[in-house]
Amino acid sequence: MPFHPNIPFNDLPLLPPETTVLTPSVLEKAAEAGQALKEFDRMRGDLESCSFLMDSLVLLEAKDSSEIENIYTSHEDLFMASALGPDGFHPATSEVLRYHDAFWEAWNAVCKRSFIATSLCVEIVRRIKEDQSGIRRLPGARIVDFAAGKVVYAPPEGESLIRKKLKNLEDFIHSGDGMDPLVKLSLAHYQFEAIHPFPDGNGRTGRILNILLLQLYGLLGHPGLNLSRYIVQREREYYRLLNEVSEKGAWEPWILFMMEAIRETATRSLEIISAIRKLVAETAEKAERDLPPGVSPNTLAAWIFRQPYVRTRSLVDAGVAEKGVAEDCFGKLEEIGVVKKVDTDGGTLFYNEALFDALVKSRDLAAL
């Protein structure tokens, strides 16, 4: 049956596509994206000493991916809630934190098993939604472009059919067909979004899968790519290209979009992490003469660059310093202008403005 936006797309073609997707333009762009990703992942060894930073980058990815689904929180609230816990913050902030937790659980699962199954996708969406979501059973799911006031897509219906298409996707992901892994990622991302297997949370689950696939294919040693940032800045183009694959089989523009997303994100993420590593080194050198005996300036600097808001207890829990010494450390860091003390209802935090600016403001300026 020909595609119609208001008729369930039960004839969604299986992967791989029957048409040729490895055009000269795609191969060229895949090579560029692959090179940028390789340069970013060269930090894999170096990042063992500053992997603490990865959690902040995952929080940014969680925020941006959620924003695509109209779930909004501020950077300030997100980082503060991460340090203090979600109690007292807006429900949207809690939902973004659940995305963050779902991501790490899935990342660690793939690290252990090197396999991405339908069951893992179910675990991800259940963690995000904090319910017992499963494969969509009820008919009537529709994707609506509210700006245009019309239905743009109706996903396949019937649990059995959805599971068959997910099994095909799983087989495609793990097939040793020699296809460029970044092209394979692009095809898999479209297919997951087109299957739309859950009542809610499909977009966020699909964007987590993007990063997991990079890990699975050996292209990403640390989850430092904020890939959803590129998408949220080009949201209408993202959805338009997805729809054009369904309507017209227009694979090339979609794949080129994903290749550029990976290339630009890898390049920009490398710049941000390099800038933060420099700040860590400068802070360690600046603080060395002011710290209590027995406290490593490099270790301390690493921990206060873990996230923009840090609690004294985090240093104690990490074994960096005992409680009294940790309090003294923050006092010294405040005196020399590295952190600012912030009193909240949940307790005292220390704010690292330089880290916040490097994580948030620099990437926003780059998009202008």
CATH class of the largest domain: Mainly Alpha
* Whole-angstrom Rg: 22 Å
Number of helices: 15
Strand content: 5-15%
Shape: elongated
Can you give the helix content as a percent range? Answer: 55-70%
Mean pLDDT over the residues:
92
CATH topology group of the largest domain: Fic-like fold
CATH architecture of the largest domain: Orthogonal Bundle
Describe the structure in your own words:
The protein has 368 residues and is mainly alpha-helical. The protein has two domains: 24-271, Fic-like fold; 287-366, Orthogonal Bundle (Arc Repressor Mutant, subunit A), CATH 1.10.10. The protein is built from 15 helices and five strands. It has helices at 24-41, 54-68, 75-84, 91-113, 118-129, 159-174, 181-195, 202-216, 227-233, 235-248, 251-287, 297-304, 312-317, 323-335, 353-366; strands at 143-145, 150-153, 309-310, 340-344, 347-351. The strands form two sheets. Strands 3-5-4 form a three-stranded antiparallel sheet. A hairpin with a 4-residue loop joins β1 (143-145) and β2. α10 runs antiparallel to α11 (251-287). The longest helix has 37 residues, at 251-287. The model has no long low-confidence stretch (mean pLDDT 92).
Question: What is the secondary structure topology, with strand pairs?
Answer:
Elements: H1 24-41, H2 54-68, H3 75-84, H4 91-113, H5 118-129, E1 143-145, E2 150-153, H6 159-174, H7 181-195, H8 202-216, H9 227-233, H10 235-248, H11 251-287, H12 297-304, E3 309-310, H13 312-317, H14 323-335, E4 340-344, E5 347-351, H15 353-366
Antiparallel strand pairs: 1-2, 3-5, 4-5
